[in-house]
Each structure stands twice: as C-alpha cells, then as structure tokens.
Design goal:
The chain has about 130 residues and is α+β, with helices and mostly antiparallel strands. It has a single domain, classed as Bit1 (3-Layer(aba) Sandwich), CATH 3.40.1490. The strands form two sheets. A four-stranded mixed β-sheet has the order 4-1-6-5, with helices on both faces. A two-stranded antiparallel sheet has the order 2-3. The longest helix is centred in the first third of the chain and has 17 residues. The chain is globular and about 45 Å long. The model has no long low-confidence stretch (mean pLDDT about 95).
Amino acid sequence: MVKMVILVRKDLKMNKGKIGSQCAHAALAIFLNRGEVVGRMGGLSLECDVTKEMTEWIEGKFTKVCLAVNSEEELFEVYNHATVAGLPCVMIKDAGDTVFNGVPTNTVVAIGPADAEKIDKITGGLKLL
C-alpha cells in the first residue's frame, strides 16, 4: 500500500481552514518541488521526477492520513527521520500574513507518497489529527 502522511502541529491551535490550506500546500509541494512548470503551446504543464510509489499513488486511491505532532521540535524530528530514510517529504513554512502575526512559522510536513510500511516505521507512534 502507498500513502501520504501529513503531520500537523497541534501547539499552534490553527483553525480548521488554516489546517486545510496548510495540508493542501504540503500535498502539492511534494510534487511541485520535484519538478518545474514549463510553457507549452496553449498552456503550462508540470514536468517532475516521481518515484514508482508516487505514480502508484496518483493512479490509485490518493490515500492521505493526517497525524498530530505537539511542537515544532517534534515536527523537525520526524521530518529529519523521513529525510534520512530517503522518503519524499516537505516542510511547509507559512508566511504569517494571516494568522501568525507576520512571523513565518513551520506548520506541517508531508511524507510520501511512499510505501506505507516505510512511513509507519517513522510515524507509527503518532496519533490521528
């Protein structure tokens, strides 16, 4: 099974709308950060380097699970473990324009799409959001 996991900082007490937008940023950034937008006749397209698991995810169920972390330190810890494990991952830093009083703030991390067992080795102890 292939899935994506999105970690959300609970300590920030973001409202549901902010959580949704941050999770959407993360799910898109996983792919956008791996490629480039190119101009073509009649529009733009995204060319990106995806893994076998990412392709399987795109062609499958788009399984996503949102988990909670309690602090920025915990967010970085899990992010670092995922990076060392070679999993696709991205950390989202909100600009702070609407919620965080102008302070750029790390809010969420997306890991995957990747093999669920590999992700679970890193995130298995975390609780659902």
